[in-house]
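Weekly puzzle thread! Below is a chain. First person to post its structure in token form gets bragging rights.
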Amino acid sequence: MKKIGNYLSSTMCVIVLAFSMASCNKTVAATPAGQPVDLTYAAEKALPSVVHIKYVQNSKIQTIEVQSDPFEDFFSDPFGGFFGRGQGGQGGTRKRQVQTPKRTASGSGVIISADGYIVTNNHVVDGADELTVTLNDNQEYSARIIGTDKTTDLALIKIEGKNLPAIAIANSDEIKVGEWVLAVGNPLGLNNTVTAGIVSAKARSLGANGVESFIQTDAAINAGNSGGALVNTKGELVGINAMLYSQTGSYSGYGFAIPTTIMNKVVDDLKQFGTVQRAMVGIQGINVKEYIDSEKDRGNEINLGTMEGIYVAKVVDGSAAASAGIVEGDVIIAIDGQKVSKMAELQEIIARKRPGQKVAITYLHDKKKKTETAVLKNEQGNTNVVRNADLDVLGANFREVSAAQKQQLEISNGLEVLKVNSGKLKAAGVPKGFIILRVNDQDIKTIDDLQRIVKETSTSKEPVLFIAGKYPTGKLGYFAIPLSE
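Winning reply:
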């Protein structure tokens, strides 16, 4: 369960809790206005598709820096002052190896295809060494991660099964405020739990994820619901229960779900590319009302010609917004003819699109309406497909430095380049025997450290590895290695 702070007052907290997906076809008649709602059909349709996910992170040995204790150092090594105490020294820090405890946790997930694809939260699977999926009929499967997306807190995992009970996925644009919904998951260790509520609001933004346009509901959501389903009265998935607003850390307020319009795009990208192809308008902005209210607090009277839309505070050079002629002070009011009254609505529309697609942007410039067509670009400023790079892109073999190398070169960590083949390292001139100490200002202790940074950097705004290290002679060396073509 992920806690989100800095959004409400100091007495409040927001707790991340749920996500999901699905497929099915049967429909039921709408309940006449004023009549009681029968939710049994929806529960029967949704329950078989929602699974329990057990997360295991195995115990590991980690090296940490601790403050040196001169008395402890003396008694454990009375000659340390003569022969040296490594990097710590008297009054400094020293390295200590600690064993982390084995960690277990649980969450929920939703089967979206009969061949075993399951959607859950990124935070449910992040860092897991083992994932065990238990179906509603108590069958157990080991799962592997297909892809994750921290920006939306979504993850796609896979189990090897056939004819699995996939849930139907509805268009979340069609749900209405006041409509009945069910939250299905495994809260508080209670498997196969269903709670009911209504859609309280749409297009909510909490500042918890990079991209968000939440469905707000008063259906009870608690720890363990993470990855579970929000379904309509037909048992169709409309959203992924994502967060809980609470003073206590357990349900006492509202839950928030990621709409299926965003989720579908993320899943398609993870299946096809392994990472999300995220399109950018290229602005920094704020809801018009919030901007006007902030200016009033400063004693300024502002008239933008509207009280709805996104006030543009900054435009990124070369972006879609820039090519549409948008400048600071303009107000975006529609995308492809669809009205946007706040930033969350703009994010939801753009989150469905990929770099290279064209959009019609309607905006107010000096209170005059304009509509221009522009090509969306990715975070790197182009329309190329962005993929997670692997260590193979570097074209080299590595090993952790030995104790003798640490002593000789006066280092505490690093990776030695054992062999340089064709790849990015060879192109940059990195030689065999070079010791990589830091990459992008992060210490490199293991091959996993390097793999993680390569993967993160390859999809970032600036896909460049800045490497600092030492030659076998002790001379410092620096290299800049672009990961993009």
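Puzzle host: Confirmed. Bonus trivia for everyone else. Confidence is low (pLDDT under 50) at residues 1-29, 79-90.
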